[in-house]
Amino acid sequence: MVKPRPGGRTAQTRAAVFAAVETLLAEKDPHALSLTEIAERAGVAATSLYRRWGDVRTLLMEVAVDQLTREAPLPDTGSLKGDLSAWAASIAGALSSREGSAFFRVFVATAPGSGEDGSARLAAAQSFVDRLLAQSAANH
Questions:
Q1: Could you tell me if residue 4 is inside a domain?
Q2: Could you tell me which of 79, 17, 77 has the C-alpha nearest to residue 9?
Q3: Looking at residue 83, what is its pLDDT?
């Protein structure tokens, strides 16, 4: 039986790739990235990225989900309603800053068929979040 190596080469490659993606997303739009460019920035072979993730969208979503779970973990308030309310407030707060909205920017920009209308979808999502924040402030 082979035991997993938590600090092994796979973990190091994943960390380097995720860091490269986060850096590149600060420089350009998600739809402008390629696996080859990400691999070059991470210092790994592009074939590793193709083998593990297959395409840019899959990789970007995995990075975004990882970031979301680190920055806005699911709370445990003791009730489902409390958990969802606290999580929604956490996400709404994150969406008010460019840095905190990476998951949603990637999700909208890489959605199938988003293409040029990705910006319009992101603007609509931001409008929705603005309304949620205003409603939340009015209720408190």
A1: no
A2: 17
A3: 84
Q: What is the pLDDT of residues 104-135, one digit of tens each?
A: 667 666 666 555 555 665 566 666 666 666 66
Burial 97-112 (b: 16+ CB within 10 A, else e): eeebbbbbbbbbbbee
Question: What is the biggest distance separating any 2 CA atoms in the chain, rounded to whole angstroms?
Answer: 58
* Of the ranges 54-68, 69-83, 119-133, the best mean pLDDT one: 54-68
Position 3 in a domain: no
Which amino acid type is present at position 27? E
Tell which wins on pLDDT, 111 or 39. 39
- Cα 62 from Cα 15, distance rounded (Å): 12
To the question of pTM greater than 0.70 for the whole model, the response is: no
**Distance spanning both ends of the chain, measured CA to CA:** 56
Q: Would 97 be classed as within a structural domain?
A: yes
Residues 123, 132, 79, 102, CA torsion sign: positive
Segments in the chain forming alpha helices (H): 9-27, 35-42, 46-52, 56-71, 80-95, 102-109, 118-139
Q: Who wins on pLDDT, 52 or 119?
A: 52
